[in-house]
Amino acid sequence: MTTLPTIHGPVLHDQLVTEQDLPPAIVARAQEHLADFKSARTAKTIRAFENGVRLFRAWCESGGHGWFPASPATVAAFVASIAKQPFRRIVTKRGKPTAITTGPVAAATMKQYLWAIGLLHRSADLPDPTKTGKVGFAVDAFERAVGVWQRQAPALTRDASDRMVAEIERRLADAQADGKPASPYDLRDRALLLVWRDTLARVSEVMRLRWDDFERYPVKASGSVCIRRSKTDQKGQGHMRHLTAPAVAALEAWREAHAAAFDQVLAAPPDPDSGTAEDARVQARRAALAATSGFVFVGVHRAGITPLSDTAAIRVLNDRAADAGVLQRFSGHSVRVGTTQDLLADGHEVAAIAQAGGWKDIKMVLRYGDRLLTERSAVAQAEASRSRKEP
Question: Which GO-annotated molecular functions does the record name (predicted)?
Answer without folding.
Answer: DNA binding
